[in-house]
Each structure stands twice: as structure tokens, then as C-alpha cells.
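Quick one: C-alpha cells for this chain, please?
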Amino acid sequence: MTNTSQTIPWGLLLTAWHDDPEVFSAWEAAEAAGLDLVQARADMQSDRINAILEKDSEDWVDTLQAWANKKLTDMAEELADE
């Protein structure tokens, strides 16, 4: 498992790219479709959403570590066979 004290502060990440033109267009489209932007932005910062993103981050790190370990093991076996 990932040490949660060293993971990305997702609330900051979610607001860090808000100036991106594509993201801005997506927010405009969502608002035009009837989304309450104030509530949506508040929901993005909720403990529930942050917990989901934290879990996704941990899963991604675990997957990446497993992939890297397999690659390194495979490379070590190839070198041992030479």
C-alpha cells in the first residue's frame, strides 16, 4: 500500500488545471446542460471524492509497481541466461 502521507493532494490537483481552455469549455458545456457549477465544485472538494481519488491513486501506484517489478525480474532473468 502507498503511504498516504506522500500522495497527491487531489483537491489541489483538481483546481490546478482549471485554467486549461479545454477544461473551461467542458465546464461551460456542463453549465449549459444545467449543472449547478457551485455545487459541482463543492462536491469535487468533498471527503468522499478525495477518498475515491486517493484509492485510485493507490491502485495506480500498486499496478505500476507490480509492472516495474515484473519488468525488472524479466530483465534479471535474461541477463542471468546470457
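Residues 9-45 form one domain.
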